[in-house]
Amino acid sequence: MRHTKIAHASPLEGAPRLNLPSEYGASPNKEIIFRISATGRRPITFRIEGLPEGLSLKEGIIRGRVEKEGSYPLRIEAENALGKAEKNVTLQIFPGSLLLTPLMGFSSWNAFGFEVTQEDMERTAQQLLSTGIAEYGYRYVNVDSGWQAGYGGEFDATQPDPEKFTDMKLFCRRLHDKGLLCGIYSSPMLVPYGCDMNHEPRPTGTTQGEPDPVWSEERGGIGTVRKEKNNALQWADWGFDYLKYDWRPCDPYNADQMKRALLETDRDFGFCVTVRAYDLYHAYWEKNCTSYRCGPDSHGMWHYLLKSYRSYFDFIPYVKKGHFFDMDMLDIGDCTMLKKRDGNNFRYRAYTEDEQIVAFSYRAFFASPLQISCRLESLSEFETDLFCNEEILEIHQDALFSPALPHLIREVNGGCVHVWKRLLENGDQAIAVFNLGETEEKITVYLEKRFRIRDAWEKKDLSEGNQFSLFTYPHTARIFRLKEMPSVKGRLAQKAQIDEK
Question: Which among 90, 209, 260, 282 has most CB atoms closer than 10 A?
Fold first, then answer.
């Protein structure tokens, strides 16, 4: 039995709705591929006002380059046979302004593991579009580890395993033609995670040579021959837009070698540092990384979920707009890699449906990147509803950005209820309630003003007041959006104005 109700998603039905953050960032004079995400019955016609010189709109995709720094207000319209939607979006063209809101997309690891192929990724990209999932803002398609072989090519950089990826440049171009963006994985370690240490040719990271004794010996260590620039130029030449950079422990020196190399290319790169980006180095992460991770891998199991959830606490003071704390790819749905790790022959279902809602909710509410990582061909209706709730994603993509802060932590007598609050750019508030314990708990949330209270998962208005109470069941999550109501004096003034008219 599932306790949390969630609304049904109909991505390709009804009047149009634009699912876009109010700000979109890019660097000056670097390629922009901005697909306008809109649910609703097809065909949809898009129009735009305020597009700066260097950009054009075709088939719902904004493309081009903007040379001059600045903020450019856009008015975007979407129209179909059933209605029209409008949205104001400010295009922020400044160095380092990519991913002002958390990344949304797909990551290959939990779905395909080290067996990932170009065919897998191109098929997944098409499924994001055909299912309508992309219309909620999932635009990055990220290749995790498993693609690598030895060094070579024009730039003397890591090349793809030819049995898995036959043409990286063609792969990126095909995704870009669809308006989607491409991500790749690497490491400064001599042999990245997810690769066979004994495979020939030996899969490689961004360094070569003898291991440098300054750094950890993990996975053969970090080499003394630096090839960050070589690899960055190769990825840019192929057309990638994002790098997941993975080693342990993460340190600013090795991160900065790669960051500088990426900045010197002609492409905008999102830059995620993982897997142990300790808070000791927060000053670097919160300035230079679009996201950073310091928690466990996603495993689809409750005790790992709790570890991941609690990893956010140490980073609350450091999360910034455009620099988000990554809580790893989603472990929801048909995750073949997790199934193999578990050693069974059945569809992986370690989580209950309520626990899957928890797994999605804390990532969404804490503004972690959201990366689906399951096989989309076997997506259930429940999973589609979970991934495609525009009211939850609107909170996740809120461009203010105000971090989630604890409002109430109650851990007594075996119970564990946490209440979190976020401020939103239009003046609303968002409240998340997590029951992470094993007992049913009644909780009352006291508010400083009178609000209209809406259940964002169910997409249903509940009540009005300066407090609300609910019973919470073990391993569940609820998310509410609160709109401030006018005071009695304010309501009387509004009534008087209406009467005068």
Answer: 282
